[in-house]
């Protein structure tokens, strides 16, 4: 049984072709540039050539691609886009027009066509075939960061954090933030778009990137062995930390990594563990928010960290443990996706859990 798991970040897309007949450490693994980085490169090439661009496809991640589009406009060049593609940058069409983007289905014949999507299955399959592996798939699991489609008068930071807190408040398990394709909440437009990019005949599981990484960190036996802990994913753009007691979340906060210093992050994590962190202070600090639920144990003495910018906590007073599930930090999100598949795809549960246990 095979599952293609792809964790789409801002800097990289981390890929695992899980095969239940192999030891998980021997499964095909790739770490490649993220789709938003690839789109940004195509836009910048058009900017150098002084050509208009036409964006089509589906809603995907922004960041580097958005910055490249803004530079293209500042260079006095035109940007045409379908609404679905342009929503990658903002949920409000009027703001998109104000940026100078022409929202239209048709574009000039000389425009450079740029396909917008978070999941490019064909290049992944071509890469593994080049090494003699036939990508026969039973399911696809995809992780992307989704702010959700906030109403025009609502902060997307507040909208996302309210979604996280409300979902976990209803069912206090990280897999509550994972969905089969047919059950994705309507407001989670990027999750829906990436799911729609996968073949209709396959089962598809989607999950938010940061919770997937934290769920994957729990595949490290040392992390899993602690009854109380702080687990933090320090991503390229976003940092999300969970306080766990007995396998349940009793607190979390999310912030923009670029707005944090190492000292400020350490302070937030200490106060998360003590239950002192507040939503307003994180939001006012340009973050998403924080929530603390009732807890019964003292502040945890164990902190695990994962993510590409985990070095921010190296040597800090927290003395963090750098999680390495199945010996590979970069695939942490993929391992979290596999754990979500074990819950949401009962027909494959036994084989997934057996492989994860034997890793």
Could you characterize what this model shows?
The chain is of the alpha/beta class and about 350 residues long. It has helices at about 35-50, 65-75, 85, 95-100, 120-130, 155-170, 190-195, 210-215, 220-225, 260-275, 280-285, 330-345, 350-359; strands spanning about 1-10, 10-20, 30-35, 55, 80, 100-105, 110-115, 140-145, 180, 205-210, 230-235, 240-245, 250-255, 290, 305, 320. Strands 3-2-1-8-10-9 form a 6-stranded mixed β-sheet, sandwiched between helices. It has a 6-stranded mixed β-sheet with strand order 14-13-12-11-15-16, sandwiched between helices. It has a 4-stranded parallel β-sheet with strand order 6-5-4-7. A hairpin with a 3-residue loop joins strand 11 and strand 12. Helix 1 packs parallel to helix 2, helix 8 packs across helix 12 (about 330-345) and helix 12 runs antiparallel to helix 13. The longest helix has 15 residues, at about 155-170. The mean pLDDT is about 95.
Short structural description:
This protein is α/β, with parallel strands linked by helices and 359 residues long.
SSE order and pairing:
Layout: E1 2-8, E2 12-19, E3 28-33, H1 35-48, E4 53-57, H2 64-74, E5 79-81, H3 83-86, H4 93-99, E6 101-103, E7 112-116, H5 121-129, E8 139-144, H6 156-170, E9 178-180, H7 189-196, E10 203-208, H8 209-217, H9 221-224, E11 228-234, E12 238-245, E13 248-256, H10 262-274, H11 279-284, E14 289-292, E15 303-306, E16 321-322, H12 332-344, H13 349-358
Parallel strand pairs: 1-8, 4-5, 4-7, 5-6, 8-10, 11-15, 15-16
Antiparallel strand pairs: 1-2, 2-3, 9-10, 11-12, 12-13, 13-14
Helix pairs in contact: 1-2, 8-12, 12-13
């Amino acid at each position: 049984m095979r599952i293609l798991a792809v964790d789409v970040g801002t800097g990289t897309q981390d890929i695992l072709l899980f095969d239940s007949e192999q030891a998980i450490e021997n499964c095909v693994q790739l770490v490649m540039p993220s789709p938003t980085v690839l789109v940004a490169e195509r836009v910048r090439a058009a900017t150098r050539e002084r050509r208009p661009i036409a964006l089509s496809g589906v809603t995907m991640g922004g960041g580097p691609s958005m910055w490249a589009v803004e530079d293209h406009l500042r260079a006095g060049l035109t940007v045409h886009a379908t609404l679905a593609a342009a929503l990658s940058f903002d949920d409000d069409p009027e703001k998109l027009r104000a940026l100078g983007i022409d929202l239209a289905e048709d574009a000039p014949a000389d425009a450079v066509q740029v396909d917008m999507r978070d999941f490019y299955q064909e290049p992944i399959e071509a890469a593994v075939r080049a090494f003699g592996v036939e990508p026969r798939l039973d399911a696809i699991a995809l992780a992307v960061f989704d702010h959700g489609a906030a109403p025009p008068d609502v902060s997307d930071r507040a909208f996302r954090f309210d979604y996280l807190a409300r979902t976990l408040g209803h069912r206090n398990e990280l897999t509550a933030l994972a969905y089969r394709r047919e059950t994705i909440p309507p407001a989670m437009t990027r999750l829906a778009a990436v799911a729609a990019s996968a073949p209709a005949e396959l089962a598809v599981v989607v999950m938010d990137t940061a919770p997937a990484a934290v769920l994957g960190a729990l595949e490290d036996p040392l992390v899993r062995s602690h009854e109380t802990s702080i687990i933090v994913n320090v991503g390229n753009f976003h940092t999300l930390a969970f306080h766990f007691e007995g396998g349940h979340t009793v607190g979390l906060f999310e912030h923009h990594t670029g707005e944090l210093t190492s000292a400020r992050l350490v302070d937030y994590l200490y106060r998360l563990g003590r239950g002192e962190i507040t939503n307003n202070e994180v939001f006012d600090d340009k973050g998403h928010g924080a929530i603390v639920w009732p807890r019964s144990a003292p502040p945890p003495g164990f902190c695990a960290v994962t993510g590409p910018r985990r070095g921010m906590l190296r040597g800090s007073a927290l003395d963090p443990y750098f999680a390495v599930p199945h010996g590979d930090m970069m695939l942490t999100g993929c391992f979290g996706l596999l754990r979500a598949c074990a819950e949401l795809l009962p027909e494959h549960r036994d084989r997934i859990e057996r492989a994860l246990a034997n890793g």
